[in-house]
Amino acid sequence: MTISGAHVLDAHVRIGASREAALPVDTLLATMNRLGIDAALIAPPERCIAYHNAEGNALTAESAAASGDRLRAYAVANPWRGTDAIADLDRARSAGAVALAVDPVLQGFDLHDGLLDPLLRKASEWNWPVYVRTGTPPTALPLPLASLARRHPDVTFIMGRSGATDFWIDAVPALRYAPNLLADTSYAPWDTVLSGFGADPAVGPGRVVFATDAPYTVPDVELQRILDWPLPAADRARVLGENLAHLLP
Amino acid sequence: MDIPIVDFHTHTPAWDHASWLAGTAFTPADFTAFLDSAGIRAAVVLSHDGLFHATPEANDRLAEFVAADPDRMVAFGTVNARYPGAVEEMERCFGTLGIRGLKIHPWLQGVSMHEPSLDPIAEVVAAHGGIVLCHDGTPPYATATQIAAFARRHPTVPVVLGHAGLHDTWREAIAAVTETANLYICLCGVPPYAGRQIIERCPTDRVLFGSDAGLSDQVGQAYAVARAHEITRWGVDEATLRRVLYDNPRDLLGGWPQ
């Protein structure tokens, strides 16, 4: 499959072995080649997001460096680690990381307990987008993320999974509330959730980024959904890659 | 893989009372055309309006909808356990309307699975050999273990977790199904990696599939067609997939469709 005219950028995958799913880097690259995905932002596996942050950052940095610009690294650091977390991010940045990935459930914090704020100040300083995995009550939801985003207006946040599934109902209100928040497409049907994003005057295709969320999904299906979504070609190109590419160095 | 599908989780259009999450209007003929396009042999059609406002009229319209093609559609109606007359309406659903089961949506309907008012309704379901299908995956009113507790209060009633725990409680759903003999699990809205785990770890004869069709803003139910296609890409062997997609739901529905 090729996608003519669009630079396709997958906004979120997790490489390595997570609890019930795994994504070896060679499998990721083969899938990208098969589907016509030009580049992907890679996060480390679950245990490295939760605890073994330095190991995870080394894994993503090495994988990105070896990929010939196909892969770009998210940095991870559990906010509970305080100044050590900042030091980890600093090292990850030196090794090439271009964004921060956060998972309040895996990392065991609340978006509003203050633990994340020092990391967000670094993201602001370095001009990093911040991916926050959402969908799980009570600590990983779209609207609390929107409130957080409003407190950090110079940081662009990606609402990972856009609240999938039942908190899809909060996604558009969150996007309306925080203009520096972007939706991601993973799991979202085009004929319900994505069409709602596209039709809302405050959201639209300019605030939606394509993500496969591999290895939890079937990437072919995630991409096909975006191709099936009836959008003007220019808007589809924005969703598939341009919206996110603008945020990366 | 060419496996016929019995889709255990679809909805009628929202006719009157769904002020959101309503999708678009469609006819029974539109719906069977969707079934054809997705390779679905037959479907359990659940109430939609009734989840927002559980009236006898909602059940009447549901029964009328599936009567258009009883070889391909069976109905699960709904009542709100807090409404006066709910037990009598459940009796009417089975005795007069030919409905085969009860759909409960605890968070839309605002009913906890622990409420005693559900029990006489479940006894009606039991008396008619019916099935309960419950939305799940969403705290605080619709977790798998809450629904399992209800199922254990009514051990002769098959109780289906309508969403297999969705993204966040599917591990809990596996535990609940494994320890509750009359609890079934419907792969509907779970991510593929979780679906594979459910198929591998749950008793295979109690795993079902559902597309959640009926909520699309397109008559053709594009997302539901995609879900029916996607499950064949999960890497599940054909024999197991056949049980999930066809044999298990057909067994649970007493050999329907023929």
UniProtKB/TrEMBL annotation, chain B:
Name by which UniProt lists this protein: Amidohydrolase-related domain-containing protein
InterPro entries in UniProt: ACMSD, Amidohydro-rel, Metal_Hydrolase
Superkingdom of this protein's organism: Bacteria
Location of the Amidohydrolase-related domain: 6-254
UniProt cross-references to PANTHER family, sorted A to Z: 2-AMINO-3-CARBOXYLMUCONATE-6-SEMIALDEHYDE DECARBOXYLASE (PTHR21240)
Keywords, sorted A to Z: Lyase
Single Gene Ontology MF annotation: hydrolase activity
